[in-house]
Amino acid sequence: MLAGRRYRLDLTPGQAEFAERIGGACRSVWNTALEQRRTYRRRGAFIGYHEQARQLAEAKQEFAWLSEAPGHCLQQTLIDLDQACSRHGTWKVHWKSKTGNPPSFRFPEGAKIAIERLNRRWARAKLPKLGWVRFRITRPLGGKVKNATVSRDGTHWYVSFLVEDGLIEPERHAHPGSAVGIDRGVAKVATRSDGRFHHQVFARDREVEHAKKLQRDFARTTKGSARRRDAAARAADLARKIRRRREDFAAKTACALATSFELVVFEALATKNMTARVEPRPDPERPGVFLPNGAAGKSGLNRSILDKGWHRIELATRSKARYTGTNVITVNPAYTSQTCNVCTVVDRKSRESQAVFRCTSCGHTEHADVNAAKNILTAGRAEHAQPRTGVRAGARKPRNRVSRKANRQATAAQATAQTEPEPAEIPRP
């Protein structure tokens, strides 16, 4: 199976500066190629990866700042853009900014990457044009390197190796027949159907107040000033610390679930819709005045939901399930918190509070989140027991997007009007 290994790099000042230039070149190629695709779409034409790669090769002969970057990193940027446009559409793919997107680039050919271990703590890797770079080897690679991605997080650089570890998914779980339902919430991050809770406070009260102060300090600075960069760096450091706690919690929770249960059932939560912004309501009688709509309370709820990292827990569980043989499925979350798991009567009045569920029909009393988790498990077992034939709903057949677009490229180019000005070629300095 393919697995990721991430290590912290120890770059020299010259290597760090060169890595910044490579990241800037990849960002320029991404933005220019995206602009070119949108320009062609406005004209009713199409341009794909192969034509853009040809233009990129021509541009490297003209611009020195582009030719110094590894060619495979630039080509991989075009491939990533092609896949993003195929998956989300050309108009929904975002631009990459210098401040909002830290530099990141990938070396796709693992055969050209050499790795040597120096001692118990350090190792080094030879990357094209970057040369030998040292990294802190905190865990063995455990497989053959397929590619390497270099990225910057704050002031530190990291390298992520995609390795083939040679392991295969087990045919049967270590605990056959075991199953658990997971209810994700705000008061408790994850509640299991067996009555256990997985919860952690990622940002302490002092850190929340300190984060507000850092945001106020940042708001008082002038755009483009050195004080503004320092204030942004301090706020990002605190946010990074909280994010790593969330990642660690998700990994530990996923390990506990995947190693203990053969079937793990989550709710199919639409987090993006749940955290949507409340639109203001204008007063029809008073122009320019807006009616109260509970936006302040909804904003606090949105922050609480996003802070728990619900989707990250599900992703980590699916990743860990490859090594344990666990089946991870999702079910419709409708009425799971209002249904009694004993008599199956649905009544919103049974949910007396956040933690108390008392059935109005049979009188069954239980923790509200545990009751919801049991309903999720019941729905998951029913869905898992159904025979699956053919392709599952919503699945798409894998295809080679680059080659198919190349077949349409020649036809689209011939249909393009010669009188219209040609769009900007890749890249734009």
UniProtKB/TrEMBL annotation:
Basic residues biased stretches: 394-407
Alphabetically ordered keywords of this record: DNA recombination, DNA-binding, Endonuclease, Hydrolase, Metal-binding, Nuclease, Transposition, Zinc
Boundaries of every Probable transposase IS891/IS1136/IS1341 domain copy: 170-275
Compositional bias of kind Low complexity: 409-421
Taxonomic placement: Bacteria, Bacillati, Actinomycetota, Actinomycetes, Streptosporangiales
Stretches the record annotates as Disordered: 379-429
Keyword Transport belongs to the record: no
All residue ranges annotated as the Transposase putative helix-turn-helix domain in the record: 1-43
Native source species: Nonomuraea guangzhouensis
Pfam families: Cas12f1-like_TNB, HTH_OrfB_IS605, OrfB_IS605
Official protein name in the record: RNA-guided endonuclease InsQ/TnpB family protein
GO molecular function terms listed in the Swiss-Prot or TrEMBL record: endonuclease activity
Domain Cas12f1-like TNB, first and last residues per copy: 310-376
Family classification: In the N-terminal section; belongs to the transposase 2 family.
